[in-house]
Amino acid sequence: MGHITYARYPECLVETDSLLTAWRSLCHVHSMYSSDYTNKGLLIYGASGEGKSCLASHYAKLHPKSEIDGRIHHPVLMYRFKEAKKTTSDILKLLIDALGVTPPKGRTEPGELDKQFKTLVKNLNVELIILDEIQQVLPNTDGVQALNTLKYFCALLDELPASIVFIGSDRAMRLLKFGELTPKNIDDNEQLSRRMLRPIKLERFEPKTQKWLDCVNWYMDKLQLPSLTVNDGSLLNRIYIAYIERSFSTLECLFLRTDMSHITNQAELIKQLHENYQLYCQHLNPFDETNLSAIAVNELIEDYTKSLRSEQS
Known about the structure:
Layout: H1 17-31, E1 41-45, H2 52-61, E2 66-68, E3 71-73, E4 76-80, H3 88-98, H4 112-123, E5 128-132, H5 144-159, E6 163-168, H6 174-177, E7 200-201, H7 210-222, H8 233-255, H9 266-280, H10 294-312
Parallel strand pairs: 1-6, 1-7, 4-5, 5-6
Antiparallel strand pairs: 2-3
Helix pairs in contact: 1-2, 3-4, 7-8, 8-9, 8-10
């Protein structure tokens, strides 16, 4: 593995410590393809809306499929599992199709799909495979079926020239913790964790912090509106209550989905945030002061902060 070139972090994503770390790790594990190292895997996980898929999608777009000297190059294959898949054959058929080839229908000979997929990865010069919503391929409980899936991922990391990034919810950590609650009759002698870099969890901001203020002001800057300050604590807290619902997905709905070029002051901003939340979100509207008083907002903030710190400890 030579010198690592870190791709420029996308301007359309908020800069957070965990997202920046995930971006650099994506670049790092990508640079490990074709190396002799077997630990060419990476897990990025976290709650819905934290920016996992968006980050990976932007990275994949930096490495589009192309034709060089008459040969197709597909440097980054990104696939998102949309529904639960039970077997490695199911998974392989989806990945083969994602590489532009129709997989065999019906029953196949042992190893046929594996051989076809590995041949495609080599012939198309795939350097990095990103598997999104990876928790979809894991059964609800540890057992032989889950073990077989994990063993196959181990084999891919051992045998493919490409690196692999797994992306998923908190439940995806089972990839690395498999066997902790496994019945003793399950032989887990092929640990995926030994083939992985340190996993990265995308963390949420705590309220009433400089990082939260900087986050909100990133969106204010996108709207070309004056930055908020600590003196705008009431508004910052109400935005945070909205943020609790679906993290950055909610903030995008609040600030970026609707034309807000007409806004000239904070009163107009709050009115538009109220309308956007009512349109795009599901919970009690935090910008409605008649339904959610300042006292109630502060109580929700305090309770959520305790919960957040408890999860992180």
